[in-house]
Write a structure and sequence with these properties.
The chain is of the alpha/beta class. The protein folds into two domains: 153 residues, Medium-chain alcohol dehydrogenases, catalytic domain (Quinone Oxidoreductase, Chain A, domain 1, Alpha-Beta Complex), CATH 3.90.180; 153 residues, Rossmann fold. The protein is 21% helix and 25% strand.
Length: 340
């Protein structure tokens, strides 16, 4: 093999991303220099948060220039090395992007996959950025306390489902999820152990449904949706309630002028509500702490996951665009290389 494939940004996204915003190109297979190693990607992820970099404007990360490969997370195997600390044949999880091969130095977001019975893809799912976001978002940003009443939005996604299950494992009194289909809601209750799940697409009066499921109010809102949902739940927050702004999937495709405002602000004073967002890499030094706790939960099937698998790097734009149509059920991963 002398070439690798990449998915690059062809045009800036306006509104929901489209297949035509992306294109596949090829490039010479890179050779590692001194201190570097090359990774052959096996699994790549598609992440809703990537959308914030695809419109030509900066967010918490710089805008992606046209013609550049899309960023993302991967798990793969080292197939050439000039770094003795990263030997050929080792499996690694890392920030590799939408491509089949990449050059790494061992710095930044990268680690060796330990020997476990878990599939490789879990290292870009529950043990990757989504699961780490759930762990630190619930534990640190939301300052979870035993006995909390927890509401999770976009609850069947990999972040929400993991956050809810961790809250349950840590002793939440109530865990309620909001999702977009009866199938997702059934999975949350029957498989993931949520106390209740609400299909926002069919329930009619969502405010009343949340109030009925959580009659004593909400201690923690773990939100992955955006400002309209926060505005809706704010009046239901309990004294000293905490809101973790984990994601904004409903707002990513909106301009600043179109993004809803938060107007129900009185509880910030009357109920001492605290709202805070997070970028998971702020907790990078503590990632081993999360792995130590979550790996046994996964192996013991006390932490369950839903995963959708796509085949071939050419399918990555399709997998990504579907995230904004509500098509996904769980973590979307794309197999771009042989595991053997």
């Amino acid at each position: 093999m002398t070439e690798m494939k990449r998915i690059v940004l062809q045009t800036y996204c306006e509104g929901p991303p489209k297949l035509s915003d992306f294109t596949v190109d090829t490039a010479p297979l890179p050779e590692p220099k001194d201190g570097q190693f090359r990774v052959r990607h096996i699994w790549n992820s598609v992440d809703p948060g990537t959308r914030s970099r695809l419109s030509g404007g900066d967010s918490y990360a710089a805008a992606l220039p046209l013609g550049k490969p899309i960023d993302g997370f991967s798990v793969g195997v080292i197939d050439a090395t000039q770094n003795p600390d990263w030997p050929e044949g080792a499996h690694v999880f890392f920030a590799g992007g939408w491509r089949t091969h990449s050059i790494q130095t061992g710095k930044g977001f990268i680690g060796k996959v330990p020997e476990t019975p878990l599939p490789l893809s879990v290292w870009i799912g529950v043990l990757g950025v989504p699961g780490l976001t759930a762990y630190f978002g619930m534990k640190d940003t939301a300052r979870f306390q035993q006995g909390d009443r927890v509401l999770i939005t976009s609850a069947a996604g990999p972040v929400g489902a993991t956050a809810g299950q961790l809250a349950r494992a840590w002793g939440a009194e109530t865990v309620v999820g909001v999702a977009g289909s009866d199938k997702k809601c059934a999975w949350l209750v029957e498989e993931a152990g949520f106390d209740a799940a609400i299909n926002y697409k069919t329930i009619g009066d969502l405010d009343a449904a949340i109030a009925e499921a959580m009659p004593d109010g909400v201690d923690v809102l773990f939100d992955n949706v955006g400002n309209a949902m926060i505005n809706r739940v704010m009046p239901m927050m309990r004294l000293n309630g905490r809101i973790c702004v984990s994601g904004q999937v409903a707002d990513y495709n909106l301009s600043p002028e179109e993004t809803p405002g938060i107007v129900n602000t009185k509880p910030f004073i009357t109920h001492r509500v605290n709202m805070q967002g997070l970028v998971v890499f702020d907790f990078a030094r503590r990632f081993p702490e999360a792995f130590e706790e979550m790996v046994p939960l996964l192996v013991g099937e006390k932490l369950v996951r839903a995963e959708e698998r796509f085949e071939g790097i050419e399918s990555m734009p399709e997998a990504f665009c579907g995230l904004f149509k509500g098509e996904n059920f769980g973590r979307r991963v794309v197999k771009v290389g042989d595991e053997a």
